[in-house]
């Protein structure tokens, strides 16, 4: 059982945030790790020329887009460059800098513009409803979608329709798809899968293939850190709070139950202002809905770079039963990698 929190601690389970469509849209920006990502700071590997080629093509894409937005005038010397296709898809294995390039494109684009993961956009539609979500993003000049999920046919069809309406209004789209670090078939290219799943829009996308190795050369071994039996998580949380940190302390079961009562679009507000998350009594999950909610929560925690201290089972071992053999394997592997980083104090850059 979780010890009673002191006055210096907060509990995530006590938070019942509200969030408006405008607030959700305002969160659709690159994570802090990519706040200053640029084409200039991308370092292509000379052993893989496709990285430089992708960088050059995205630069051209951005330049043509900017030119297309500038009205002609007295000093116009030539017609704006023409963008052949309104969409671009960055196709590559893990760790070749796809998210960096996606964020760099977002930074140079003119607004209105949005950047988010596939899950964040589906959460937006789920929170607001389809028509209000389309209306909210209507008129955007650029939408960036990181980690386009290819394992949920329903969500993929929803997003295809959603993007189709926006692109028909002139919105341009840039996307990557999810390639977790320790997934089976790491490094394979997913363009065929992506184009097949968005078949109604596939002719609108130019594919930029990016070969290469994971620039972090990160080992896939290792586990999430967990406090030993001689360490009380409440005592650890109190000690951190005494140092002036903003700490949350929750029982694992209570947190999982609470996540079921909060729409995933609001998860970002559950951790607002929290510097460290403490969890007591982590154990294996056997309910897939609960597991997927935890995945969505961990995504928000990872984006916010909030470390986790936990007792019980290491967090990367919570996905029990046949979950790792099912259709959501990629999502669980991504969450496991992120939970290892969040609990070991080694927050690596995104993909």
TrEMBL record:
Cross-referenced Pfam families: AFG1_ATPase
InterPro entries on file: ATPase_AFG1-like, P-loop_NTPase
Taxonomy, superkingdom: Bacteria
BP GO terms, sorted: cell division
Keywords: ATP-binding, Cell cycle, Cell division, Nucleotide-binding
PANTHER family associated with the record: AFG1-LIKE ATPASE, ATPASE N2B
Protein name per its UniProtKB record: Cell division protein ZapE
């Amino acid at each position: 059982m979780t010890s009673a929190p002191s006055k210096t601690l907060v509990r995530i389970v006590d938070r019942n945030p509200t969030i408006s469509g405008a607030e959700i849209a305002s969160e659709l920006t690159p994570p802090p790790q990519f706040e200053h990502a640029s084409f200039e700071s991308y370092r292509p590997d000379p052993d893989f020329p496709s990285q430089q080629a992708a960088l050059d093509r995205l630069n051209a894409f951005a330049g043509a887009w900017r030119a297309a937005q500038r009205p002609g005038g007295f000093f116009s010397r030539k017609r704006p460059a023409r963008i052949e296709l309104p969409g671009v898809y960055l196709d590559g294995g893990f760790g070749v800098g796809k998210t960096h390039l996606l964020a760099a494109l977002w930074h140079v684009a003119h607004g209105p513009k949005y950047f988010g993961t596939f899950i964040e956009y589906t959460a937006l539609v789920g929170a607001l409803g389809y028509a209000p979500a389309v209306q909210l993003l209507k008129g955007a000049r650029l939408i960036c979608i990181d980690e386009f999920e290819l394992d949920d046919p329903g969500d993929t069809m929803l997003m295809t329709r959603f993007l189709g309406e926006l692109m028909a209004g002139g919105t341009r789209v840039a996307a990557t798809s999810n390639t977790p670090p320790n997934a089976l078939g790491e490094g394979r290219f997913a363009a065929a899968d992506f184009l097949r799943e968005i078949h109604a829009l596939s002719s609108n996308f130019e594919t930029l293939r990016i070969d290469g190795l994971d620039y972090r050369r990160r080992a896939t071994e290792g586990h999430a850190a967990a406090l030993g039996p001689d360490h009380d998580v409440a005592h650890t949380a109190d000690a951190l709070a005494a140092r002036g940190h903003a700490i949350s302390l929750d029982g694992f079961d209570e947190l999982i139950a609470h996540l079921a009562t909060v729409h995933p679009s609001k998860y970002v507000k559950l951790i607002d202002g929290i510097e460290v998350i403490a969890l007591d009594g982590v154990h294996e999950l056997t309910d897939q809905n609960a597991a997927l909610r935890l995945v969505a929560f961990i995504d928000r925690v990872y984006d916010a770079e909030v470390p986790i201290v936990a007792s019980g089972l290491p967090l990367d071992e919570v996905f029990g039963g046949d979950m790792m053999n099912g259709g959501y394997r990629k999502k669980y592997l991504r969450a496991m990698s992120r939970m290892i980083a969040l609990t070991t104090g080694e927050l690596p850059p995104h993909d």
